Each structure stands twice: as structure tokens, then as C-alpha cells.
Amino acid sequence: MAPALNSFQQRLLARTERAPGSRKHARTTSDASDFPAQVTPSSPLAGVSASVPATRNTTNTVQNFAKKQKLRGDQLTQVDTFLGDAPTVRKGKLFCLLLAMQNELGNIVTAAPPFAVSAELKVNIQNYAHAVLLSPKLANYRGDLPVQHVMSILWKHRFDLPPGIENNPAELAKIQTVIQEAFTQCRSTIKKKLFASVRVWRTNEKGEKVVVNLPADKHQNLFALAQALVDGTKCRITNVLCGRIALMRECYMANSSTSFWTDVDAALVTMRETAGGNDELRDDLFEDLIADDKEKHGAVDIIYQTTNDVQQEVDDLIDATTADAVSTPAPSTPGPSHSARDSGSPAPPEEPAGESEQPASSIE
């Protein structure tokens, strides 16, 4: 018994030494048959196509929405047909409609009227043309530089400009023409007011209209002239503006012909060269012009005003782009873009009542 017992004990010991959970043999197929196989339940939508036409509830909802959008009767019929189509047909119809819309947009762009400068844009151009001409930072009154300043302001604010006009030279030319005409009108207005400050039109014994210089005590003083020039504009009377006006009147008294503005530009160049970049010396030169004007045309205490936002914007823009640089005066012969109003003698102003009784000092 002892050997048999020892053999049994050895087998028992061998069983206890095996790792827990280990098996002598792998599980066979017959073992798995003890458990039922997992069955995947069939989907209730299996075999049903995704391209199911819209249900009646969907159709009613869409039709009600279409009626709220005030679609026509034939369009409501098209909507009902569209809802009953297969998805592929719907996609094809949508693509066709997109192409048709593209064609319609092309027809609209083709049929668009040619660009024209609007009345609102003309008003803005006129206002800024006045501000540029009355700016103490302007280097010259003739030439392309003033036009460029106004164009820069238009690009900044856009106003009534259509998109992409920068790439259309023909439409840009229309705007530049309006700006040039605005400057021509502004220069003509300034020249007429300079004329009215020292001269009048008279009818001589032969019935002819002649220009008569007023006596000094009848001249318009500098402050009154400045008020007349800023009237109707967004500019204000400042000391530097009065210096420019005094320079204009001095040039006008020496030469009121068609080369007047050329003389003004040349005088500005001379003053800049004399100042040599010294702003204080340049301001002193303008103060001397103001003193001379008061002596010749009437002493007056000028009430200076602070610069408003519009004039300050123009001054900053001109100062940034030109830095009061020296520029060559424009030729005296006006180009085709300049109106005869700027080149010829100013039109006679309305003669004040009783003015014809004033004595004339000289006749041009």
C-alpha cells in the first residue's frame, strides 16, 4: 500500500502545483456547444432603401412653409414634385438651378448701367476740394497734387464708390474729371471773391463794362475776406489760413490774369526756399503778409478759430504725403480739363446798391 499511496500523493501534489485556472487541454468545439450562439437580431429597416420619398407630413410642412414665402402656384407644384423625387434626382435638379442662377447673375451684371458719379459723391468731392485748397499744408494750387489728395480721401472713406473701381481706368477717369472740375470751380470762386474785395465792375460813359479799383477805405479787410472764403465750406478761420489768403491777395493785386495761380504757386516755392525748412521762419513770413494786408486793405482784429475735424484730417493727410515739399509750379496754360471759368476774367458780381456813386481810383 505504501508505494501506491506514495504514487497517489505524488499525483495530488502535482495537481496542486499547477497555476490556478490552468487546464490540461484546450476547450474543444464540443465544449462551446454547451452555450447557445449569439444571434444578431435583424434590423426592421434591413433591405429598405434610404431613398424613400417624403411622407405626407413632410410634404404638408414644406408646402405650408412655401406658402408663407409667397411662392406662386406653379412653384408650389414644383415643390410637391421635388419632394416626391429620389435623392439623386433632387441633387441633379438643385445643381441645374444653381447653373440657371449663375446665368441670371451674369445677365444682371452685363445689363448694369455704366458707372456715373452720383450726386452724393459730387457733394463730398466739392467739400473736400474746398478743404484742400484752403489748407495751409498745400504745396501748390495747380497741377495733379491737389487731385491726388482728394483721391486719397475718397479711398479712405469710399463714400459712394463701387467695389473694384480701382481696377477700372475708365471709371477712375470719370471721378478724376469731377475732381478737376470741382477744383476749377473752387479756384474760380476764390478768384471772384478776391476781385470783389478790392474791385468792382462799372459801366463807363460809352456803356461798356470796365473794372474799377476801389479806394483803400472801401476794401474788404482780411477777416471779412476770410469769412467770405470759408462761407459754405467746412473750414474755419485760422492764422495760417489768413496768411495764405493775404498771399493770394498780394499776388492778385500784382497780376489778376490767367497766370494768377501760377504766380501764387511760385510765391509759395520762394517762401519755402527762404525759410529753408525752418517752420518758425516760414510762419513769420506769413505773419508779415498778414500785417501788410492789414496796412493796405484795412486794420482789423482777427478772431482765429480752432481747426475742425474735417480740416484737420485734410491737413494731416497733406502733411503726411507731401511734408510741405517743394514742387514746381504748374504751367500757366490751362489743360483741357480746366474750365474757362478758372482762366478768364471773373464774372461781374452783383453790384451793391449805391456802389456806382463811389469814386474810382484807377481803371485796368
UniProtKB/TrEMBL annotation:
Comp. bias intervals (Low complexity): 355-364
Species of the source: Mycena metata
Protein name, entry field: Uncharacterized protein
Region of interest: Disordered: 15-54, 318-364
